[in-house]
# Entry
Amino acid sequence: MRNRGIELWIALGLIVVITLVYFGVVFVLKGIPGASSIFGHGMGIVGFILMLFTETLYSIRKRQRRASWGAMSTWLQFHIITGLVGPYMVLLHTSWKYNGLAGLTMLLTLVIVASGFIGRYIYTKIPRTAVGLEMTSGEVDSQLSRLDQGVQQYVGQQRLDRETTRKLSELHRQRQRLQRQKDSLAAARRLMATWHAIHIPIGAALFTAAFVHIAATIYFVYLAG
# Structure
């Protein structure tokens, strides 16, 4: 993946900015903003929307293999950013109280975030095309063959300049990386399938609890009174 890890730095930067804003509000209010305050509700609403984006947009893009609206790698980066920033905003929304359904929702959120990190690690073990689509064994073999052809054009040259040496070294690194991925491809796919079987039900439980929590909040705060 191009610029691997940049999505974590972007998410960290956004979390730092949100944290500074949060402490600014704490300073102004001289206390922790309540979950039902304007600021608390705002954090919860935006955080939940980001979590919905995390749950839906990347999955929709992944099913459209021939779509041209953005590379899969870019959508995955967006998925990771919203998957970290959204839950953090929901955490701040709770005003550090985890009773009842709100507590269960927060616990499931933390579990799904941890699961997401595991999924990202497994994802990097599966070879992919330039736009981030999962490669088949045949596609991996084809790419290895092209790399071998690229190496062969330099073999037998009497004198290699610095730029040629650099290119040859890069081709060797690419081939070694792709060969390692090919060797672990079957295991990585089994792990990914197992991960999906665990991650998706947890996500469904999380959003079920979140929607019930939202409905209960709307009823008891705005309708029942």
In short: The longest helix spans residues 185-223. The two ends are 52 Å apart (CA to CA). The chain has seven helices and no strands.
